[in-house]
């Protein structure tokens, strides 16, 4: 079974065992925007359940995705490749690299969702081009089984405009759409609120989309900038949540460390075996 679909099933399985703790099992991911295999590998070991390899808003290109997939293969993290657009050519190239879970940005209606799914499927189900020699077939050492390849994929479509939210039920009903992901940043801009993802109207629209997705039974995810917002989304019923980005985690930790050392009231303390502890 596809690894991302497996992640989505875990909370439900544990529901029966420990109902009150089940919400703590919502899969947590992050966005890999540094295009760095070392950072990806390190965050994989840090314990994230999944991460987006972001070709839409980072310098990541097709060879970069290959390096990140290789790095992540040493970890338990489930890679989700976000393609830069709903484009059958890019989609077939990242699938040939062995990506099995794709995120497609800015899907607006059921027809666009069906086009995204068709790009991931071999004929007769879709239009994916066929090649026996690829990383996906372990360089031709495995026979290409097109039906098994189709069945092993997961497609997450991003709903990021009022028009897309309006069509949520039709998009969710498209065969092969395995999950929807509400993109708060694009949604805020499309709603006329610039980059204000915390605007009450945006928050309400994200929460309403979550409710509607749950009503039709499609797994729904979204992105949070802080653990506090992530906890809020989790309590609201989101099935999977992205927590910030690799670069955001790095920059915020750097700023917090510098601030702790530069505050005028608390001097930095230095500890050493020879001199003991003293203010620096
Ligand atoms: C957005 O918020 O617009 C995204 O694409 C990521 O969640
Ligand atoms: Mg977006």
Low-confidence stretches: none
Report the radius of gyration as a whole number of Å.
21 Å
Task: Provide mean pLDDT, rounded.
Answer: 93
Number of helices: 12
Instruction: Give the terminus-to-terminus CA distance.
Output: 56 Å
CATH architecture: Alpha-Beta Barrel
What is the CATH superfamily? Phosphoenolpyruvate-binding domains
The SSE order reads HEHEHEHEHHEHHEHHEHEHEE
If you consult CATH, what is the topology?
A: TIM Barrel
Query: Which small-molecule species are bound to the chains here?
Result: 3-hydroxypyruvic acid, magnesium ion
Description:
By secondary structure, this protein is of the alpha/beta class. The protein has a single domain, classed as Alpha-Beta Barrel (TIM Barrel), CATH 3.20.20. About 45% of the residues lie in helices and about 15% in strands. It is built from 12 helices and 10 strands. Strands 1-2-3-4-5-6-7-8 form an 8-stranded parallel β-barrel, surrounded by 7 helices. A two-stranded antiparallel ribbon has the order 9-10. Helix 2 packs parallel to helix 3 and helix 4 runs parallel beside helix 5. The longest helix is centred in the last third of the chain and has 17 residues. The protein is globular, with a radius of gyration of 21 Å. The N and C termini lie far apart (about 55 Å). The model has no long low-confidence stretch (mean pLDDT about 95). The structure holds 3-hydroxypyruvic acid (3PY) and magnesium ion. 3-hydroxypyruvic acid binds next to helix 9.
């Amino acid at each position: 079974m596809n690894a991302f679909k497996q992640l989505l099933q875990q909370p439900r399985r544990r529901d029966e065992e420990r109902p009150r703790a089940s919400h703590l099992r919502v899969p947590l991911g992050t966005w890999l925007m540094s295009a760095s295999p070392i950072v990806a590998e390190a965050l994989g070991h840090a314990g994230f359940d999944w991460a987006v390899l972001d070709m839409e808003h980072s310098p990541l290109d097709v060879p970069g995705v290959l390096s990140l997939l290789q790095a992540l293969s040493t970890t338990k993290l489930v890679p989700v490749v976000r393609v830069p657009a709903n484009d059958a050519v890019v989609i077939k190239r990242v699938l040939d690299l062995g990506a099995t879970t794709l995120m497609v940005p800015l899907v607006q209606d059921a027809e666009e969702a069906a086009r995204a799914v068709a790009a991931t499927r071999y004929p007769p189900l879709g239009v994916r081009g066929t090649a026996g020699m690829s990383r996906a077939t372990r360089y031709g050492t495995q026979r290409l089984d097109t039906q098994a390849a189709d069945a092993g994929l997961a497609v997450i479509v991003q709903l990021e405009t009022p028009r897309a939210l309006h069509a949520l039920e039709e998009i969710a009903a498209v065969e092969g759409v395995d999950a929807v992901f509400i993109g708060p940043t694009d949604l805020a801009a499309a709603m006329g609120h610039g980059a204000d993802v915390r605007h009450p109207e945006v928050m309400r629209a994200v929460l309403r989309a979550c409710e509607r997705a749950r009503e039709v039974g499609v797994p729904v995810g979204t992105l949070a900038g802080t653990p506090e917002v992530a906890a809020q989304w989790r309590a609201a019923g989101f099935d999977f949540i992205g927590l910030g980005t690799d670069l955001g985690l790095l920059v915020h930790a750097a700023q917090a460390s510098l601030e702790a050392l530069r505050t005028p009231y608390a001097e930095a303390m230095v500890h050493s075996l020879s001199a003991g502890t003293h203010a620096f």
